[in-house]
Amino acid sequence: MDEKTLNELKSRLIYLRNEIQQRIKDNNDRVRSFESGDEGDFSNSISYKDLTYNLIEKDRTQLIEIEEALYRMENNTYAICERCKEPIEIERLKAKPTAKYCAKCKHIIESHS
Ligand SMILES: [Zn+2]
């Protein structure tokens, strides 16, 4: 992968990381406001709270994937498939910068799960 593409992907990952960190913070604030009981109907608050927790969990998982991708960039193992050790398709990384597997391995892994 050329340096320009790598830098583009890196800045996108950093941008995404900031965005997600902000969203987790907002959602945590929201959970706290539910807990303070100012949100009207209590039963509604509970389901919104669960929903918000789910969002936070999803964001945390994504945040870990981003951290791992940035770590791989630092260690020059980025864009190498973790399964077959072949380079991951650039187009695939542009669509999903946190991809760990090439398209072929991804397909194999998904068809087995
Ligand atoms: Zn592979």
Automatic annotation (TrEMBL):
GO molecular function: zinc ion binding
SUPFAM superfamilies per record: DnaK suppressor protein DksA, alpha-hairpin domain (SSF109635), Glucocorticoid receptor-like (DNA-binding domain) (SSF57716)
Domain Zinc finger DksA/TraR C4-type: 77-110
Zn finger spans (dksA C4-type): 81-105
Keywords per UniProt: Metal-binding, Zinc, Zinc-finger
Protein name: C4-type zinc finger protein, DksA/TraR family
